[in-house]
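== Folding task for one protein ==

=== Format: two labelled lines per protein ===

==== Paired sequence and structure tokens ====
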Amino acid sequence: MLQFYFDFLDVFMDRSDFEYVQMDTDSAYFALSGSSIESLVTPELRPSFEREKYSWLPRTDTEENRRFDKRTPGLFKLEWEGDGIIALCSKTWYGFGSKDKFSCKGVNKRNNEITAEKYKRVLLEQNADSAINRGFRVKNNRVLTYQQERSAFTYFYPKRKVAEDGFTTTYLDI
């Protein structure tokens, strides 16, 4: 992840044109000031970018290459594209646009109403929200049902320092 940031994005684009929203071990969500990475490449670095881009991104020149690179480990594939994202903490985010996508680790998605408004409220009010999980459990050779309320949507972000505006983050100075 850090190599992608420092050896690719940071080399070929101006830092004012992109901002990381969140990063995990196998994914990176970032905002762009343009329509695509290619549209934001610094013009004088375009030839170098064209030589290096397929070391980082899947090929799109032919259908055969596109299908092959879709399964190639190490390349950064587009997982979701939208108009905005609210990232509360790792594995708890809501992306909205033409097709919404979200993640809320540990929450039964069918039993809870998951909306962008819920994420936005937690972020703006800095009050955690809960969710209800229901399921089955075997105890003494009997199948029992359970219902559990858990704190599921939290504004606390332990991996970076959150600025006073409540939105932007910077590294931890530890």
About this structure: The first strand starts at residue 18 and ends at 23. The mean pLDDT is 91. Residues 2-12 form the longest helix (11 residues).
